[in-house]
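Postdoc handover notes: sequence design on the structure in folder B. Input tokens:
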């Protein structure tokens, strides 16, 4: 059986048959500020707020708590120097984190930094408690002190992941986050090597980010959420089409968030006005469907990003999921509904496929 056929069958089972267990009830609760990363101006819809040193690329984070005190970074040079320092720190602790705390051995999925200068540790939803965070913070803090850093700022949170990898030992595509009890040593080693890699970030420029991505605890909740967003996209497609016909909008897509790609040639003022106008349209429809604070990212792709693109969806949510594209035929421009086949189309494109 071909790997592509295996993936299709797995996803069919995923939608039609499989029931996934609920996550642990004793998981640590989110902080009151968790839905917005630092303040009301920062949204977890803007993935560019985070940069990852190793582990997986998260599509929407929810903050649990923060330790330490962030530095005052007033210039770009200060930010670059601090980021370099924290990346050096990540290299110092990587082996311990990967072997002891990181999936498939533990709950950690990502290690990186946010735009405010916090060192970031992200977990998959599950068995996370204060004792675990205290233990990991002590590891980071001790290494930081050896580098002359006192009271290292660390943010702990839950990430959202939609990545799969083909494992020879079980002869199927494997979702990062699944139970590892039946995996061979070779497959465990494969997962370890993936988690050690530096995360590839998508090339895009954020114009505006609105709304909030909710905490999605498992695959079932993720699918349900994407279905809701797809219904909103279907209902608003007709109103977005004129912007595409005029060349103002390049793409309208559904994933963990709704994505609107704006023409890079427009002025900053035009982009901002367009984002505000389109979001009002989407938000009105979302409220009719009982979805408040609907997450929408408005972005543009820099010219160098377009030239360097290999049209692969493996390293970015952008360009994945169901979407409308200005340069496609009118038949393909429509945003498909998320029935069974629509959901499969979204997951085949929206889930990042890892290569060994």
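Designed sequence:
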């Amino acid at each position: 059986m071909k790997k592509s056929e295996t993936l299709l069958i797995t996803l069919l089972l995923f939608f039609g048959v499989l029931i996934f267990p609920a996550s642990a009830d004793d998981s640590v609760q989110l902080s009151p500020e968790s839905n917005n990363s630092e303040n009301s101006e920062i949204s977890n819809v803007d993935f560019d707020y985070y940069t990852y040193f190793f582990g997986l690329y998260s599509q929407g984070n929810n903050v649990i708590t923060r330790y330490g005190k962030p530095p005052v970074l007033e210039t770009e040079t200060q930010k670059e120097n601090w980021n370099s320092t924290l990346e050096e720190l990540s290299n110092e602790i990587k082996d311990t984190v990967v072997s002891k705390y990181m999936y498939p051995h533990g709950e950690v999925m990502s290690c990186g930094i946010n735009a405010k200068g916090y060192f970031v540790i992200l977990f998959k939803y599950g068995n996370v408690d204060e004792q675990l965070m205290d233990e990991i913070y002590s590891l980071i803090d001790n290494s930081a002190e050896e580098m002359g850093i006192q009271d290292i700022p660390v943010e702990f949170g839950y990430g959202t992941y939609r990545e799969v990898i083909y494992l020879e030992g079980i002869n199927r595509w494997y979702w990062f986050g699944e139970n590892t009890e039946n995996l061979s040593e070779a497959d465990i080693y494969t997962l370890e090597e993936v988690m050690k890699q530096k995360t590839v970030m998508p090339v895009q420029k954020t114009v505006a980010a609105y709304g909030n991505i909710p905490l999605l605890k498992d695959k079932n909740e993720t699918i349900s959420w994407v279905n809701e967003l797809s219904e909103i996209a279907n209902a608003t497609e007709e109103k977005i089409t004129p912007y595409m016909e005029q060349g103002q909008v390049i793409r309208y897509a559904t994933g963990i968030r709704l994505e609107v790609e704006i023409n890079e040639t427009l002025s900053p003022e035009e982009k901002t006005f367009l984002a505000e106008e389109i979001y009002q349209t989407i938000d009105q429809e979302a409220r009719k469907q009982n979805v408040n604070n609907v997450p929408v990212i408005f972005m543009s792709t820099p010219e160098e990003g377009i030239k360097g693109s290999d049209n692969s969806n493996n390293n970015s949510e952008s360009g994945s999921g169901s979407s409308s594209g200005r340069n496609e035929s009118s038949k393909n421009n429509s945003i498909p509904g998320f029935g069974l086949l629509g959901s499969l189309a979204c997951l085949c494109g929206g889930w990042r496929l890892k290569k060994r």
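Context for whoever picks this up: The longest strand covers residues 108-114. Don't rerun without checking with the PI first.
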